[in-house]
Design brief:
Chain lengths: 697, 321
């Protein structure tokens, strides 16, 4: 059985990411920077109606615009659009302005439907307009039941009922979705901003009816995806068709406006939870009904799975008697897609809020209540370590008892990410050159998390070299196939693969050169003995070096201005495990990012749809609010290194409990629950009973 | 955006002539370019670059008045030590505006003249009342950011933080209007927006803001706002106050609020009530009652009432230093 070295020089140490210099100097060329020879701009015409029958699309006026080289419709003949922003046509031209002019010149004949529903609570009504004609908006509920719930509530010493809601959240990676696609007689090359070069390749090949071997996908640098970038997307197919027509590469990157409409989101949740505990604090009965919307449907072009509206309930806690009913509500809005820990942040917010509410009712400390009910040993350990670091005991006050108008409060919450295991089909290769240089090639992609650095660190450790002596190439379907970067699987997939490549390389070096241990100081001598031909080594993921799942707990301290409603997060302590840590620096970056994203979910982010017009009201960073650096608190990260477990991913769990911990801290500060994310000043003031009722006009 | 001509004016007269009735002046461009890129306003057929106009980028420190040229940037106001000392309320308002990058190029004139931020107005595919449509979507729709007071069916509030602050300081905007310098206080500068849904201020086509004059008669001033976020976010409510404080008593007090009305919200009865009063929490609270009297909150913006009440109290008490 293979095992990681007991003593390490680079693994579990801080290593600067290997591509930091090109990134900070701007030399790194992201997918959106691609300038293929003779490239054209591509742009998409989107529906301005939330529901309409498109009767005809006349592209002729667009083609007349100087500089326009191609124009295509999404579908021939009549078709239906079901949400504001759905794709109708696309153009390619030599300038952005030519494309903008061309989009405005396209003549669309349409029968807009006035009956549509863009919000869950409208779409749920019996007489609501149907998003899919002939099909009710609310899918038949799924009920899961164990024990005897109705009887169990009677045995409880305390029972709470709460309504906890989370909004639709937009992925909004810094780099928008899009590709440059070149389609010639030789095949297709796509420079894609993607989390899955292989899934993009196969998607393009399928849609364009080409051999997979005729499609090459390249992703040198990409600016984030969070689960929404696994397929080529409608935009990728359109870019390919435009390229075919224009006989030139087409760069079709979406705008920030587009990102809010059609390339995925996290479904909303509306969780009605009833929960009871016995007098000693043991959870005993749980009943929940949850609905949420995945837009017109879940998983549109997700490729990465997930993205549905269901959430895991009662989440981390094994309640012996439980009944959970869930249903998805279709609305006239863009489809959801997998979004960093699909289902988990909303589940965490609902359940962990209910936990604190029940703890208060029982008169128990919320942390003690968790330790009573959470049987997971890793999390129990993390709670204890975190509580110490955070000063839980000293800081905890009875809810609402902090003095003055600006009240402080604390809260905590736990995480789980049950997926996150490795992709067992991961492969890779290395070329060892006679001069001792070595190049690793893996058909994985670095989505910004430090994948290249992980490869360099593992290789350096195994070969006795320095990370900067390792050349790493990823992001090309010409390399041996790697996993999609989603579900926190990448690190656990590639680390054992690199391990295997290194072991095989050392073995072959020994066979060919007779040097028994080519590592470290023997490396260059061994390589030199190869003669003129480099050594090519192929490796695969192997058993025993990676694992799942990961856990994690977070603590938050907030100050809430009870006169203005403003919430300030003062501090977050994040305690996380991910088995064997590869690089503490990139790991901490992942956790910082997860906490900040969770904080946005807690306080700022929300897609706002307008009932009357059916449009998205906040398709920009002015009104779709994200944390700025002034909003971000001190984040203290505590890492549990567990080499014996092997490598586990961290991307998802880091963002799971943040919103719940902040929500609980707010409730602890002001003594009442704000059960709806985001926790805005308006909602805080309302929860405090300070907002006067408004006479209906 | 639509095609337009571009010209650089070297004098106010030529700027005015170049702009004629359908041109737009380009200074910082933050607001204008956004409007053009989203096709939110008709025209303009010409952009007149006014950044080179002589004399409009000066701060003059007079005994009775400070004069701030229309091309002075928000960053210059923020970083001017004299302004921080003499008009701390103006400094604080400037420091809250947008981001450092925007403050570096945004100008006083542009800030005062900026268009509505209502998300229906800014939505490229919604034709709302302000854009010449029949309907204020916000009235029945999502009006969390909208007015507590309005004299017309449009409920898009004024969002200029400088206007709130300058109203409390009783400043005057000097505008080149039909060849003559016209003096408008902040109430007058915006009053057309109170009654006319299409207007966001009182300026006529071609009017050019030259400068702002701020009387030095009030030695204390303050500004506070609350936003959803801690920086780079619009105020949900903003409040400015200015007065003289002699022996703890207020004289010439003025309070103004932003983001709750199409105009800087000023209530003379409240100013009169405060005049001569000892500044304390009770007095401030009673003034807040007067200032917010008659508010007509909508389905989603009634939270602005307690928020504004708190801000009025805090801003007044901040006058004590």
């Amino acid at each position: 059985m293979p095992s990681w070295p007991a003593e390490t020089k680079y693994i579990s140490q801080p290593t600067l990411r290997v591509d930091a210099p090109p990134k900070v100097t701007g030399r790194a060329r992201y997918s959106s920077d691609t300038q293929a020879e003779g490239w054209l701009y591509g742009m998409i015409l989107r529906s301005k109606w939330p529901a309409a029958k498109i009767l005809s699309v006349n592209l002729a006026p667009a083609r007349q615009i100087p500089g326009i080289k191609a124009a295509v419709v999404v579908r021939e003949g009549e078709f239906t659009v079901r949400f504001y922003g759905e794709e109708i046509a696309a153009v390619a031209g030599t300038t952005k302005q030519a494309c903008l002019d061309a989009l405005r010149a396209i003549e669309v004949k349409a029968e807009p439907r006035n009956d549509f529903a863009v919000n869950e609570n409208e779409a749920r009504k019996d007489d609501a307009p149907q998003v899919w004609q002939g099909k009710p908006n609310v899918a038949p509920g799924r009920v899961r039941e164990r024990g005897n719930v109705d009887h169990a509530f009677g045995e409880c010493a305390a029972v709470i009922e709460g309504f906890y809601t989370t909004p639709v959240q937009i992925h909004n990676p810094m780099e928008t979705h899009g590709n440059t696609v070149s389609w010639t007689d030789d095949g297709v090359t796509a420079w894609a901003s993607t989390q899955g070069i292989t899934s993009v390749r196969d998607g393009l090949a399928g849609a364009l009816q080409l051999d997979q071997s005729k499609v090459r996908v390249i992703t040198d640098f990409m600016g984030g995806g969070f689960g929404a970038k696994f397929g080529a997307g409608v935009e990728g197919m359109l870019a390919a068709r435009l390229s075919r027509e224009a006989k030139a590469p087409v760069r079709l990157m979406l705008t920030r406006f587009d990102e809010a409409l059609a390339v995925g989101n996290r479904p909303s949740s509306f969780q009605r939870i009833k929960m009871g505990a016995l007098a000693d604090g043991t959870l005993h009965a749980f009943e929940a009904e949850n609905y949420g919307t995945a837009g017109i449907g879940a998983g549109g072009d997700s490729g990465g799975g997930g993205g549905g509206a269901d959430i895991p309930m009662p989440y981390l806690y094994p309640v012996p008697n439980s009944r959970v009913k869930q249903s998805a509500v279709a609305v006239n809005a863009g489809s959801s897609r997998a979004f960093r820990a699909p289902g988990n942040p909303p589940a965490s917010f609902g359940m962990e809020s209910a936990m604190d509410d029940l703890a208060v009712k029982l008169g128990m400390d919320p942390l003690a209540f968790r330790l009573k009910n959470d049987s997971n040993e890793v999390r129990r350990q993390e709670y204890k370590i975190g509580a110490e670091k955070f000063g839980w005991k000293e800081k905890y006050l009875t809810p609402g008892s902090s003095p003055g108008p600006v009240k402080t409060g604390i809260g905590c919450a736990g995480a789980a990410w049950p997926a996150g295991g490795p992709s067992r089909t991961t492969q890779g290769e290395a070329q060892i050159n006679p001069d001792g240089s070595i190049e690793f090639r893996l058909g994985v992609q670095d989505i910004g998390t430090g994948t290249k650095t992980v490869i360099a660190v593992v290789a350096a450790e195994m070969l006795g070299l320095k990370p900067e002596q390792i050349t790493v190439k990823v992001g090309d379907t010409n390399y041996p196939p790697g996993p999609g970067s989603g579900g926190s699987t990448t690190c656990a997939s590639i680390s054992p693969t690199v391990y295997d490549i290194c072991q095989r390389g050392l073995q072959q070096l020994q066979n060919q050169t007779g040097i028994a241990d080519a590592r470290g100081e023997n490396w260059f001598a061994a390589c030199k003995k190869l003669g003129v031909n480099p050594l090519a080594v192929h490796g695969t993921w192997i058993e025993g070096l990676s694992n799942r799942p990961a856990y994690g707990v977070q603590f938050a301290e907030v100050a809430v201005d009870t006169e203005t409603g403003l919430v300030t997060v003062k501090k977050v302590v994040a305690v996380h495990d991910c088995g064997l840590i590869i690089d503490t620096l990139t790991l901490e970056s992942q956790i910082n990012g997860g906490v900040i994203m969770g904080m946005g979910y807690a306080l700022y982010e929300e897609r706002v749809m307008d009932d009357l017009s059916g449009v998205v009201l906040n398709p920009n960073f002015e009104t779709y609010k994200l944390p700025g650096i002034a909003d971000v608190p001190e984040i203290e990260i505590v890492l549990l290194n567990m080499p014996e477990r092997g490598v586990i991913g961290i991307g998802e769990p880091a963002t799971v409990p943040t919103a719940a911990a902040i929500g609980n801290a707010v409730a602890n500060a002001i003594g009442v629950r704000v059960g709806s994310l985001p926790i805005t000043p308006a909602k805080v003031l309302a929860a405090l009973g300070k907002v006067p009722p408004v006479a209906q006009t | 955006m639509k095609a337009f001509e571009y010209a650089t004016a070297l004098s106010t007269d030529s700027a005015r002539q170049l702009a004629a009735d359908s041109g737009a002046y380009l200074a910082g461009g933050n607001d204008l370019l956004g409007l053009l890129k989203d096709y939110l306003i008709p025209g303009p057929n010409i952009l007149v670059n006014i950044k080179s106009l002589p004399g409009l980028n000066q701060i003059e420190r007079g005994e009775k008045n400070w004069i701030i040229g229309a091309l002075v940037t928000i960053a210059e106001i923020e970083h001017d030590a004299g302004i921080a000392k003499v008009f701390p309320g103006l400094h604080d308002a400037a420091a809250e505006i947008a981001s450092p990058q925007i403050r570096n190029v945004a100008t006083v004139g542009g800030n005062l003249a900026q268009h509505s931020r209502c998300w229906y107005f800014r939505q490229r595919d919604v034709v709302c009342l302000k854009k010449g449509g029949d309907l204020c979507y916000a009235r029945e729709g999502d009006n969390r950011d909208h007015c507590l007071f309005s004299g017309n069916d449009c409920i898009s509030p004024v969002v200029s933080s400088l206007a709130t602050s300058l109203a409390a300081l009783e400043a005057t905007a000097v505008v080149l209007h039909e060849g003559k310098e016209t003096r408008l206080n902040m109430a007058e500068f915006y009053e057309k927006a109170w009654t006319e849904p299409n207007a966001h201020n009182s300026l006529a086509p071609g009017d050019l803001i030259l400068r702002v004059e701020i009387p030095t008669g009030r030695t204390a001033s303050a500004y506070l706002q609350v936003s959803d976020k801690h920086t780079f976010d619009w105020a949900l409510v903003s409040c400015a106050a200015a007065a003289n404080l002699i022996g703890g008593k207020l004289s010439q007090p003025r309070v103004a609020l932003g983001s709750i009305s199409p105009v800087p919200h000023q209530v003379e009865a409240a100013n009169a009530f405060l005049d001569g009063k000892t500044l304390d929490s009770d007095t401030a609270s009673q003034a807040a009652d007067l200032i917010l009297k008659g508010a007509r909150p909508l389905a989603q913006n009634a939270y602005k009432l307690p928020m504004a009440h708190a801000l009025i109290r805090r801003t007044l008490l901040k006058l004590k230093g």
